[in-house]
Amino acid sequence: MAGPSSGEKDVLTDASGPAAFTDGELQELDARGISSPLQVLRAHRALRGMRAGQVLRVVTSSEQTLAEFQALSKYVVGYELVSQEQFGDEFIHVLRKKR
Question: Cβ–Cβ contacts within 10 Å for residue 17, how many?
Fold first, then answer.
């Protein structure tokens, strides 16, 4: 997959668009440089500890995580994949805990 040039944003998936989050609703997980599937496992663990409605923003450095986070939201009940974006060599996944 050809990525955008430096500094450009390429929106890969946008289910509902990231809403304005209030303090405490958005948590971040930096999973850059972590081997697959550990990025998804760490995100899953973080989401389990969150309240319904809270949002997790995960930054990864592997293109493979695009499909992995799509599968997580498809097969694990209670998680919504809000968006996926690519910024250069980084991939941003935004998930919301539904319940």
Answer: 9
